Each structure stands twice: as C-alpha cells, then as structure tokens.
C-alpha cells in the first residue's frame, strides 16, 4: 500500500531564523483525518507563528503537529502548513525534517519523505583536494627519521626477543596486525628486539626504532613507548607493502592527551563499533577514549542500583519513556552497554595503551536520567521555564533535591568500579538560562547556603561531586562551562569546546586544558557547505586542511594545554559507515596535530601519507570520505 508523503520547502533560512512549508500529501487510497503528524527536526518551533495548523507538542527535536480541526485530506490531496523557528536556520539536509509518521488514535502510519526545496549557499566552495601518489610513511609524523643504508623485508616468520611485561601489549598487537606472519619468541639472536632503557634517556611514551637490513630494535622506557614503536613499524610495513627502508626513528608525542570522543547516547553505537574505533585510535597513537554514555536522549550504562536507567532510559519511540529523536522513528530504538561489555571495552582499550574516560553528563543533558527516576529527581512544584539549546524544557537535574546527590553518588560509585581511569568526566555543558528560578527546593537551598542566585547551585553540585570523587582518588574533567566561577579545583581538567578563547580563559585561570574547539575538532561538522554533505554546520565546515592547521598550543598560557581530541556527536550519525565517513580522513589530521610538534608538521608532506593510509582503510573495509566528491 502506498504511504503518505512529506514534502518541505525552505522559505527562509538565516543565522537566527527559519521558515518552512511542510506539505503532507495523501498518496494513500483512504481519507486522512484526526491525525497527528510527527517528525523530528532540531529547531524550536515558535508556536504562535504556525500557519494552518498547530504544534501539539515538542520534546527536543521531536515535533507533533495537527491540522485545523475537522481537516480531512482526501486521496491525492495535500495539507500545507508553515512553521517558523528563531533557533537557527537549516543549512543542510542532515538536519531536515526527518522520519515522519502519523498517529491516528492507536495506529501509526509511516510517512515517506517526499521532495524538498532548499538552495545551495552562495559561498559554496566545492574545490576538490587532489592527493599526490601514495608514499609509505607514518601518521602521525615522527619527531625525527634518519634513513640509513639497506631495507628490511618482512618474511613469513619473525623471531623476537622481549623479556618484560612492558613489551607484551606491543608484541600482542603487532602479531595481530600480521596474521600471515608467525611470531616466534627466542632467547638468542632475534629479528626484532625490544629493549628497556631508563626513563632518563627516553621521554614517557617515546621510543627509538632502529630498522636495519636484517634486524629491528625498539628501545623504550614504558609499555606505551614500546607500543608506539610497534605501531610505527607496523605502519611502515603496511604502507611499504612489507618492505621498509632502513632508518633510525626517534619519537615522542607533543601532547599527552590525544583523544577521541564518541557520543553513544544520541545514537546507539554498540560494542563492535566501539572496538573498531579503539582499533583505529591505536593505529594513530591516540590514547584517550572519551566515552559519552549519557545525554538527554538516552542513558547507556547499566547501573545495578537503578535498573530503570537502562530498562527505560535507553529507549525511544512510541510508548517508550521518550519519543523519537533525530529521526530514530516511531519504533522502539536504543540499547545500552552491560557491565560485562564495559569491562571488555576497558580491557580492549588497555591492551592498546588507551584509557577510557566515561562521561556522565550533568546537570544539563540529563533528561533520560530524570525521566527514568522521576520520584527521586523531579520536583513537582518547580515551575521554572527554560528551553535548552537542544529544545528541552525539562532536562536539568535539580540541585535543591537530596535525591539528586543520592542518585549521582550511587551512580558514580558504580562508574568508579567499572572504570579505572584517574579521570571521570562530569559534563557540565549547556545548562540553559532560567533553570531553578522557580524551584522552591533550589530557592530554599540557595538561601540556606547564603547564595544570592540559584544559578550558583550548579557550581555547588559539580564541586560536591568533585570532592566525592576525590575521596576515591579520582579527578574530574568537565566541559568549559563548569569552570566558570572557579568553583571546581585546579585538579579538574577543562575541555574547551566552543572556541579557542574559552581554552585561553581556562588556561589563564590555571586549569589543565584540552583544546577541542568545535571549529577544528568536531568531526560531526560537515566537510563543506554542500546541502547534501553529511554532517552539521553550526560551527562551520571542517575540511582536511582546517583540521590539519589547528594548533592547540596557539594560546597564551599554552603550558596549560595537555592535548586535543577529535569529537563525533551522533545526533545524525546512526551507523558505522556514516561514523567512519565523518572520521576519515580527518582523524589522520587530528592525530598528527596531537602527536607531532608544530615545527614538524607539513601539509605537503602529510598528503602522500594520507593517500597511503586510505589504501590501508580500503583493505580494512573502513569507510571514508573520498576527496573527489
Ligand atoms: C558540547 O559540545 N556541548 C560540549
């Protein structure tokens, strides 16, 4: 049976305004009447401006609309309505009205997407980046490479000598990269020798790799150093088709924090995708996996004390705790990580010299948590009116309620049992204006604490949890907003995300800073402004050169910068192919920015190595954005 169709037409799109015609075409054989049209679009609809219909509800990106009463749409007829938003324009099709359906009483009727009218931007730049011929080489570029006489050829058997536990990650990983080669441990002369040297001679995470015609030596002081020596060797062998020019490579990273962030809350990316991401991180010497496990749209981490969090909070759709978001649709959508899976991920990462930092995002971005535990986390008399940047009106934890502290402490107890990382990320971003202003509990708590503004309770809550975690020997990491007001201690790390100036501010205040401005490191941004390009554009387009040119240390107080990271938020990234499309090749650039000293970076010398790495991605069946499109 044919389905109704939804067409849309962008009438006006600018920085702070959007006007759309929405047309429902009845392509079915029966009359449509008494229905609600549901679709997702991440813009707050101004209810007063709706023409020929009305918005019956909006939760986040999920919008429900009805035509004027008694409207009946006969076969082949259309209902057209106009909506407006002051949030932001619509700049490409990633954020278009998505996954529409009709609710007719108890019945759900799927709606197909029809046509759209949307113009390309006037400043569209579709320049194609032509890559030079591939040449063997390493990403990220090592500190120094001195070529010597001869070449090494990989044979079907490789003898190795490695006596210490610090070498086991390197050897295990290396032998897994070359399943066609038999690795044989020996006490005598070996083709590959791993030698421990004192930390005085080699920097932490550093290594010295000497490749001769017959033998190879890796010297390092730490397990990570051996591992990175092995990664460089593997990259040279793979990109050189098993043949490597003899050389001495001395290397160490510019920054200790070289991260990748993955949002598993907005869209659920399961354990296989997470492990694949970790594999690629290891290949690029990235060492910190920032795992975003909770947000408004879902709670993804099993917590024994509160089974509701994953039984209810991990799911969206009709009849679920939360409605569809970002085009997830009417059917039940979601998933979560069991404790067993989390332990598996932590171990998998550890074997690749990667630390997993979990993020429990509070006090904003907490709708799934609040909805799952309303008795503990909601205050019926809180009449505060606010709209978060993602269009939620009920997504902020209430720091006036004892339940908030009890729930968060209990959750953090279990989080600390699962994650051995020194650092736990507590979010702290994007708490909307006007929260708590009409909350009797917050007003009373602020008064009792002598605070003249309920808003100061935000700093109080994060600082309370920082102290709670400090008793367990842990530090916190937060998004930049949580450092405003200097409530948290200087043991906290600040992730500066909205722009470089925020990093400068946090560095000046004395915080260790991870520079991850959206304009250079948010790889969920589209490559260019083509309306058909995957990705969002709120921080601008990021092409390979933009990602490569970023300098995390180009601020005052740059000694406070501990590193950088690539981020992918997944509102519109539903599957692995799309995730990989956004990551590659731009992750190569971020990895080089994080590892390689600025004076060693060279765009011209980077490109042939990118070409070689793309061949490797092909072999591994990893998707990437082709340059020619
Ligand atoms: C963020 O992008 N809200 C950290």
Automatic annotation (TrEMBL):
A Pfam family it matches: Glyco_hydro_20b
SUPFAM superfamilies given in the database record: (Trans)glycosidases (SSF51445), beta-N-acetylhexosaminidase-like domain (SSF55545)
UniProt keywords, alphabetically: Glycosidase, Hydrolase
Domain Beta-hexosaminidase bacterial type N-terminal: 137-252
Active site: 430 (proton donor)
GO biological process, one term: glycosaminoglycan metabolic process
Protein known as: beta-N-acetylhexosaminidase
High-level lineage: Bacteria, Pseudomonadati, Pseudomonadota, Gammaproteobacteria, Vibrionales
